[in-house]
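Page 42, continued from yesterday. The earlier attempt failed because a stray header line got pasted into the input along with the sequence. Redoing it now with the clean sequence only.
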Amino acid sequence: MISLPLGIRVATAEAPGDFDTHDGQKAGLTTDLAALSKCLSSFQADLEARGVANRVMTLVWTEFGRRPKENSSGGCDHGAGGIAWVMGSRARSGVLTPYPDLNSFDREGNLAVTVDFRSVYSSVLEQWLGTSAGAVLPDAGSMARVGLVA
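This time it went through. Structure tokens are written below.
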């Protein structure tokens, strides 16, 4: 679809696997993250082989986060912090935002969130899609921006 002149600007895909790791997290995440990594690297390699990699930025994000403390069933409970990253031939490399302090928690045992996801989303909208984040997100003007595009 990307290599055809269809005018597609945004597409979504859901990762296979069960990332809701309330129990048995080590085994489940090892398998699921390996599969996700293989899919993402194959996708990027295909984009490059087709000569369209400079037209695609991939945003990967979690629907919810996890608490860092393991629960009694070898998993982690839902938490406040999640993860988001961008990848692509025009994405800036490296860790672009402060890494959470694994010794700093809120009252419920969540990692202290260092970047609001809406900041990342606003940055993708403006820097990659050329769309005003304010037209999509309420209070986008109050969100910081992350330099995502190289």
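Notes: The chain has two helices and four strands.
Reminder to self: strip header lines before submitting.
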